[in-house]
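The record is given unchanged here:
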Amino acid sequence: MVRCPMCNMKTTERVVNEHLDRGCPETPSAEERKQSGGNFFKPSPTVAENKKEGQEQESESGTRSSPIERKRSSESEGSVKKPKRQKMSNVPLAEQLRPKSLDDFVGQEDIVGPEGALRRFIDKDVCPSIILWGPSGVGKTSLARIIAQRTKSRFVELSAAVHGLNDCKKIFDEAKNDQKLLHRKTILFLDEVHRFNRAQQDAFLPHVERGDITLIGATTENPSFKINSALSSRCRVIVLKKLTKEDIAQIMRRGLKTVNENRAEDGLGSIEMDDEAVDYLAGLADGDGRVALNVLEMAINSQVEKETESNVRIDSEVIKTTLKRTHMLYDRVGDSHYDTISAFHKSVRGSDPDATLFYLGRMLESGEDPLFLARRMVRIASEDVGLADDSCLPFAVNTFTAVQQIGMPEADCILAHCAVKLAQAPKSVLVYRAYNEVKRSLKEDPGMASAVVPIHLRNAPTKLMAEIGYGKEYKYNPQYQDGKCKQEYMPEGLEDRKFLGDLHLGTDIDPDL
């Protein structure tokens, strides 16, 4: 079945042309076309007719004037007012600066540069199904829209944040019709693709596999965890990196240029920004071009409260005053969440209290759950400090209880107290390594998990078990001097197996020390 391109009614491919000629309600009849007197079915004027018409106009007026000139002349003679120009300044600065071509694209040189693989696909209009993975503000949507401008295929843009699977199914049907009737491919750009669950993502599989659509997905989340493996295996994952500080500075200077051009058209003074302010804001944006432009626009608007012809100067103090507080770029559910807690844990393990406090503050001040941090420190107290300082584990447990009872913001100092204690404590991974060795051994040797427990160590809760000999020859250690007695505890065949080592830490020497 296919859909009629005029009325969207389902019909068979064999009779679709007959349907268009005779039965489609959206196709005008011959009588209607005759009565309408419209120009759609009339032949276009020939060059000779155009030339003749032009000569007649010239003979009437002496010299032929352009349409623009005739319009201006009629407006000056009458009282017709010139329509007001739509100000570009009303459009957000980030949208004004959205690149229109790959040459305007800032950053990602290894992907869209002259030798970039994706650029070659785009130039040849043979773009495969891809997943664009990268943090916010690096150009995922802009790159997809550049592809839309360059391709001859039909391009459809949806967002998983606002559209559902039914919207996608409609596109799938239209894509199949376009392929059969017009021999035209369809590219579907799905922003925030990670918001679709696995069942919704599965619906894309047959259409991507058959080539009904070319999928371009954009996500800020790791595709390994958020994108169905069957779908990601049919797409090329392209990683977009954070923009460098130099990239952000370049984008901001373009933004200033655009703002000043808009103000010049309105007869207003220019905006000036020194290099120190540019560098400060570029560092603040942390690789997010959209954040940089939004903050720049906020700073400009805070200084230009009224239309003024005088120049306006933006420095780092203006930016600080505008923001009131440092802009935190920390996602509590995305990759930044896992990256930052990992850095915090490793800083404690490395006995660096300053880095420990920095990452703790970065998470807390960005709204991270304080109990999540307290739980992680309980784990650190056992995994990394361990037997080297037995006081740290109960200390961390008490910290968790205190945070639970007190809450934020009062609990910030309690968390910092525990974090510094753990960072400054001696470290031991003796127990951690020993238990990992147990897990590894049980996984690699299934027979070890089913090894028979020695009969003298077994419990004998019933008379029958006691008669069989359960626990019969067990030696109760406290009954012996210093609790020592000769007795085997490991199963038969594992008597000499050791898991616990002798060293709290390793023996390697760092050559960089």
Notes: Residues 189 and 216 are 5 Å apart (CA to CA).
